[in-house]
Amino acid sequence: MKRNGLGVAEAEARISSQLPLDEKRKWATHVIDNCGDRESTRRQVLRLHAQLEDSLHFLWARLAVGTAVAGLGGLVFLLIRHFIS
Protein backbone atom coordinates (compact mmCIF):
# COMPACT_ATOMS: atom_id res chain seq x y z
CA MET A 1 0.00 0.00 0.00
CA LYS A 2 2.78 2.38 0.92
CA ARG A 3 4.85 1.62 -2.20
CA ASN A 4 1.94 2.23 -4.60
CA GLY A 5 0.19 4.89 -2.54
CA LEU A 6 -2.99 2.81 -2.24
CA GLY A 7 -5.71 3.06 0.34
CA VAL A 8 -7.12 0.00 2.10
CA ALA A 9 -10.11 -0.29 -0.25
CA GLU A 10 -7.91 0.04 -3.35
CA ALA A 11 -5.45 -2.57 -2.07
CA GLU A 12 -8.24 -5.01 -1.21
CA ALA A 13 -9.82 -4.48 -4.64
CA ARG A 14 -6.48 -5.16 -6.33
CA ILE A 15 -5.96 -8.34 -4.30
CA SER A 16 -9.49 -9.62 -4.92
CA SER A 17 -9.11 -9.10 -8.68
CA GLN A 18 -6.21 -11.56 -8.83
CA LEU A 19 -6.60 -15.23 -9.69
CA PRO A 20 -6.63 -17.62 -6.73
CA LEU A 21 -3.27 -19.32 -6.06
CA ASP A 22 -4.57 -22.74 -7.13
CA GLU A 23 -5.56 -21.29 -10.51
CA LYS A 24 -2.17 -19.59 -10.88
CA ARG A 25 -0.44 -22.92 -10.11
CA LYS A 26 -2.37 -24.59 -12.97
CA TRP A 27 -0.92 -22.04 -15.41
CA ALA A 28 2.62 -22.01 -13.97
CA THR A 29 5.50 -23.83 -15.59
CA HIS A 30 7.48 -23.79 -12.33
CA VAL A 31 6.41 -23.00 -8.77
CA ILE A 32 8.59 -21.92 -5.86
CA ASP A 33 6.83 -22.04 -2.50
CA ASN A 34 8.20 -19.24 -0.32
CA CYS A 35 5.94 -19.92 2.68
CA GLY A 36 8.71 -21.74 4.54
CA ASP A 37 12.00 -20.45 5.84
CA ARG A 38 14.54 -18.63 3.71
CA GLU A 39 16.81 -21.68 3.36
CA SER A 40 13.95 -23.81 2.02
CA THR A 41 13.17 -21.17 -0.61
CA ARG A 42 16.86 -20.91 -1.48
CA ARG A 43 17.11 -24.68 -2.01
CA GLN A 44 14.06 -24.63 -4.29
CA VAL A 45 15.54 -21.79 -6.34
CA LEU A 46 18.88 -23.55 -6.69
CA ARG A 47 17.20 -26.83 -7.66
CA LEU A 48 15.06 -25.10 -10.29
CA HIS A 49 18.05 -23.17 -11.60
CA ALA A 50 20.00 -26.42 -12.03
CA GLN A 51 17.06 -28.02 -13.86
CA LEU A 52 16.70 -25.02 -16.17
CA GLU A 53 20.40 -24.91 -16.93
CA ASP A 54 20.28 -28.55 -17.99
CA SER A 55 17.12 -28.19 -20.07
CA LEU A 56 16.28 -26.67 -23.40
CA HIS A 57 13.87 -24.29 -21.65
CA PHE A 58 16.87 -22.19 -20.69
CA LEU A 59 18.44 -22.29 -24.16
CA TRP A 60 16.41 -19.36 -25.48
CA ALA A 61 17.67 -17.17 -22.63
CA ARG A 62 21.28 -18.09 -23.34
CA LEU A 63 20.82 -17.38 -27.03
CA ALA A 64 19.10 -14.06 -26.32
CA VAL A 65 21.86 -12.92 -23.98
CA GLY A 66 24.56 -14.07 -26.39
CA THR A 67 22.89 -12.28 -29.28
CA ALA A 68 22.48 -9.09 -27.26
CA VAL A 69 26.12 -9.13 -26.15
CA ALA A 70 27.35 -9.80 -29.69
CA GLY A 71 25.09 -7.06 -31.06
CA LEU A 72 26.28 -4.52 -28.52
CA GLY A 73 29.88 -5.51 -29.15
CA GLY A 74 29.38 -5.04 -32.88
CA LEU A 75 27.72 -1.68 -32.32
CA VAL A 76 30.58 -0.48 -30.11
CA PHE A 77 33.08 -1.65 -32.72
CA LEU A 78 31.28 0.23 -35.50
CA LEU A 79 30.96 3.40 -33.44
CA ILE A 80 34.64 3.35 -32.50
CA ARG A 81 35.62 2.67 -36.10
CA HIS A 82 33.37 5.51 -37.30
CA PHE A 83 34.71 8.09 -34.87
CA ILE A 84 38.37 7.08 -35.29
CA SER A 85 38.21 7.27 -39.08
Automatic annotation (TrEMBL):
Transmembrane helix in keyword set: yes
Biological process terms in GO annotation: coenzyme A biosynthetic process
Keywords of this entry: ATP-binding, Membrane, Nucleotide-binding, Transmembrane, Transmembrane helix
GO MF entry, a single one: ATP binding
Keyword ATP-binding: yes
Classification via Gene3D superfamilies: P-loop containing nucleotide triphosphate hydrolases
Transmembrane segments: 59-80
Protein name: Uncharacterized protein
